[in-house]
Structures are given as C-alpha cells and as structure tokens.
Automatic annotation (TrEMBL):
Cellular compartments annotated: Cytoplasm
Keyword presence, Transferase: yes
Listed name of the protein: PTS fructose transporter subunit IIA
Record InterPro entries: Bacterial_PTS_sugar_comp, PTS_EIIA_man-typ, PTS_EIIA_man-typ_sf, PTS_IIA_man
This protein's UniProt keywords: Cytoplasm, Kinase, Phosphotransferase system, Sugar transport, Transferase, Transport
Segments forming domain PTS EIIA type-4: 7-127
This protein's GO CC annotations: cytoplasm; membrane
Domain of life: Bacteria
Length: 137
C-alpha cells in the first residue's frame, strides 16, 4: 500500500456550503485534493439525513480519518460527535482555511493525535487582530 493510500481522509461537515467553498479555497492554494469529503447541512435537512450521508462515506474511510466541523454544539458537530463516540474518529471544531491547509500538507506524516493538536494550533494561531498590530507600529 502506498503512503498516499494510508493518508487519513478529511471530512468537513458544515452549515450551508461553507465546507465546500473552504475546500475550493484550499485547492486554489495547494492544488487538487484527494480523499476530502464535504457534507452540507442545508435548509430543511434533518440531522438524521446528514448522519446518513456522512455514515455512507465513513463506512469506507480509514480509521484515522479526521472530521472537521464549523460550530461547537451545532448540528454538524453533534453528528460528528456520534461517529467519534462510535468509531473513535477525531473531530475538530472551528475549521478554517489555515487548518485545512495544514491538514492537507501533513496528513499521513504524523499520528492523528499529533496532527489534531497541530491543526488546532494552526487554527488558533491564524486568528490575529491586524488592526492592533498596525496601530502598535
């Protein structure tokens, strides 16, 4: 099995099409990504339908796959938490572009737990008050 085949999949579950657009932005920076799956909670969609959609992909996903969500306690995160509890997937809430770039560049090179810690650090580290910085100069 090649290194690429061993790389964890990335699943992104968000309100609306935020995740899909985030992946498009990431691909603008890094090029085409493989084994990345987006799930959008759309108006009128039930949590059960979202869970069914995610479950269909997770049935074939490597055990160390990562799930990203947008808002803590939101339906996408609650759905992801069910799969995390059942199958020990790693779920990271608060997905942003720097986190996704970091994930794509490093998945398969580190343990899932180390990668998850690095992704949270990348996400937090990318939130900067530029106005404060420029006003201090």
């Amino acid at each position: 099995m090649t290194q690429l085949a061993k790389r964890p999949w990335l699943l992104i579950i968000t309100h609306g099409r935020f995740g899909e657009e985030l992946v498009k932005s990431c691909e603008l920076v890094l090029g085409k990504m493989k084994d990345v799956y987006c799930f959008s909670l759309l108006e009128g969609m039930t949590p059960e339908k979202l869970m069914e959609n995610v479950g269909e992909v997770l049935n074939n996903a490597p055990e160390d796959s990562l799930i990203f969500t947008d808002i803590f306690s939101g339906t996408p995160t609650n759905v992801a938490a069910v799969f995390a509890k059942r199958h020990q997937y790693t779920v990271i809430c608060g997905v942003n572009l720097p986190m996704l770039i970091e994930a794509e560049m490093n998945r398969g090179d580190k343990s899932t737990h180390q990668l998850a810690d690095d992704l949270v650090a990348a996400g937090v580290g990318s939130i900067i008050n530029i106005t404060r910085i420029t006003n201090e100069r």
